[in-house]
Design goal:
Radius of gyration: 20 Å
CATH class: Mainly Alpha
Shape: globular
Number of helices: 12
Helix content: over 70%
CATH architecture: Up-down Bundle
Number of strands: 0
């Protein structure tokens, strides 16, 4: 996503608040480390978060979705929409305020029940403010094809609202909608954006000349099957139908993934990270079906999607976007990119694959995967702080 040439102007203010990807990617990286440290402490050493309205497991899942993943989504969309529409998105003080709205709930959660209502208010206000910031330039230029992305962002806000309604005993089903609905919406957003950008990234990133295509039939099939799966899981609660639909989503996206394959991606960390992340999403759908047919733990399927799919996809995307939008060479990323992605990949193996092979050692596998997650995102933070906190090296804005 190259910036328009008309933007070649000097920017003022702190560099980290010049464009959305900067504070939100760094915030996501720091939260990924801090929240996993807390979760490991809660799980293995019984640390207390003084929460009774929600369980610590629900807190962990919520913060991974509406804390970490939402920060990456915010940074990506505020940057992408600026390119799609050629209209500036939040920068400077407005961006600082938006980032503050995201950060406050993360901190307030640590205060337990006493601060939960305030955390909920700020969290929901953030989603509304982000949706407005993304929608304004889209509506201004009438770029209606971006509604597929915007609608998912708004629905994520709705699912987050339902989560908090459940926490305050208003709607009992809100936890399921908030966590599973949020997870599947993030997956749906990734499938939408990956379909748009992965063929282009691969074509531009490999050393040889290659032309990749999207299939309209596969696009439509993926959309219909995913929507049917979403409704079956959350609206109709039909496990058998969900299992078969999950297999359908798996098959369609595996075919799509094979069509995007080129041997050159395995020499480029920014490409194999994205490719394997998409593969883990496919694996997650296969494991959801296996949970019904063969009794595989659904939590393993969920973590194939979340840690493997969302985790690797967002880490690889943050690395790529930050390099491209600071004027650096996409074909020569920092060494920390490959190290971080490799650590996370091994972590996914410990979290998803080894529990299937040796469930008796589940707690040990979980502890190792948590450590590898922490190390992977620590590498990202250390590697990318100088990149995100300093102006573009080519002197352009952003």
């Amino acid at each position: 996503m190259a910036l328009p040439k008309s933007r070649e102007v000097n920017a003022s203010g702190l560099a980290i608040f010049r464009l959305g990807f900067r504070p939100f990617f760094m915030g996501a990286g720091l939260l990924a480390v801090a929240s996993m440290v807390v979760w490991a402490g809660v799980y293995h050493w019984q640390w207390s978060l003084a929460l009774s309205r929600i369980s610590v497991l629900q807190w962990h899942a919520h913060e991974m979705l509406y804390g970490y993943a939402m920060a990456v989504i915010a940074g990506f969309l505020l940057t992408a929409v600026r390119n799609w529409t050629s209209i500036d998105t939040a920068a400077g003080k407005p961006l600082m305020a938006l980032f503050g709205l995201w950060l406050l709930p993360r901190l307030l959660f640590l205060g337990g029940d006493a601060w939960l209502l305030l955390a909920a208010i700020f969290d929901l206000v953030f989603t509304v403010a982000l949706s407005f910031a993304v929608a304004r330039p889209i509506f201004q230029v009438r770029q209606w094809r971006q509604m597929a992305v915007l609608s998912k962002l708004i629905l994520l806000g709705g699912c987050n609202l339902l989560f908090y309604l459940a926490a305050f005993d208003v709607y009992a089903g809100g936890f399921s909608w908030g966590l599973y609905g949020g997870l599947y919406l993030v997956i749906g957003l990734i499938l939408t954006m990956a379909r748009r950008v992965m063929p282009m990234f691969i074509q531009n990133g490999v050393d040889e000349s290659v032309t990749l295509f999207n299939s309209r039939f596969l696009d439509l099939s993926s959309l219909v099957l995913f929507l049917a799966f979403f409704l079956s899981e959350l609206v109709f609660d039909t496990p058998l139908a969900s299992a078969w639909l999950a297999l359908g989503v798996f098959a369609v996206n595996v075919i799509r993934l094979l069509g995007w394959h080129n041997s050159g991606i395995w020499r480029k960390s920014l490409l194999w990270g994205l490719y394997l992340a998409y593969a883990f999403i496919c694996l997650g759908f296969a494991l959801i079906a296996s949970a019904y047919f063969f009794g595989v733990s659904k939590f393993i399927a969920i973590h194939a999607m979340s840690m493997g799919g969302i985790g690797m996809m967002t880490l690889a995307m943050m690395c790529r976007v930050a390099i491209g939008h600071t004027g650096r060479d996409l074909k020569a990323p920092p060494k920390g990119v490959a190290i971080g992605l490799a650590l996370l990949l091994v972590g996914v193996v410990f979290r998803v694959v080894l529990p299937l092979l040796s469930p008796a050692l589940y707690v040990q596998w979980l502890a190792i995967s948590q450590l590898l997650w922490i190390l992977a995102f620590s590498v990202f933070v250390v590697t990318y702080w100088p990149i995100l906190s300093r102006p573009r090296i080519d002197g352009r804005s952003g």
